[in-house]
Amino acid sequence: MTKLDDIDHRILRELSRDARQPNLALAERVGLSPSACLRRVQALEKADVIKGYRAVLDPEKLGIGFVAYVTVGLNAHTKAAQESFERAVARAPQVRECHNITGTVEYLLRIETPDLAAYKHWHTEVLGVLPQVQSITTFVVMGSPKDERA
Q1: CATH 1.10.10.10 holds for 6-46
Q2: Residues contacting 23, CB < 8 A, separation 6+
Q3: Of 2, 4, 100, 109, which one has the greatest count of Cβ atoms within 10 A?
Q4: pLDDT in tens, 54-74
Q5: Could you give the maximum distance between any two Cα atoms of the chain, in Å?
Q6: Separation between Cα atoms, residue 132 and residue 50, nearest integer Å
Q7: pTM
Q8: How far apart are CA 128 and CA 124, in angstroms?
Q9: d(Cα 32, Cα 65) in Å, to the nearest integer?
Q10: CA distance linking residue 86 with residue 73, whole number of Å
């Protein structure tokens, strides 16, 4: 595990807010010289603390009008059932996140579709027909007052 100091944490906070800011601006914000800041960022990248950079997309402009979190319980608690389920959701573009979780169900999914009708189709025709799925519970997102995902 990489040991991070206060400056590393400040760099990471700043980059998570705006990864496209020039190194000069980042250095100024974290209180380093530009060369020292660049070395720190490169070290964080090399250590895989920074795994990549992403664009934050506007869902509305992409035609995404419906977002839901869906819990999925499997009917078998085997590695084969999990792997089969994970392969199926990896192929579904509507699934933006898939998390294997603890508790009464095995998975938490973030689903994005154009509208409720598209979600219903995916729920019924894709997720609902997977042989390993036992239970499905949908939580519709009505708003996101805080969302720091990139």
Answers
A1: yes
A2: 34, 37, 38, 41
A3: 109
A4: 988 899 999 999 999 999 999
A5: 57
A6: 35
A7: 0.83
A8: 5
A9: 42
A10: 13
Which residue is listed with tokens 């959701």?
89
What is the amino acid identity at position 111? I
Structure tokens at 3: 């040991």
Contact predicate 108/71, CB 8 Å: yes
pLDDT at position 1 over 80: no
pLDDT above 80 for 150:
no
How long is the chain?
150
**What are the boundaries of each domain within the chain?**
6-46, 60-140
Q: Which CATH architecture best describes the domain 60-140?
A: 2-Layer Sandwich (3.30)
d(CA 124, CA 119): 8
Helix or strand run (H / E) with residue 90: helix 79-90
Q: Do domains 6-46 and 60-140 have the same CATH topology?
A: no
Calpha distance 101→29 (Å, rounded): 37
Element of type H or E holding 137: strand 133-140
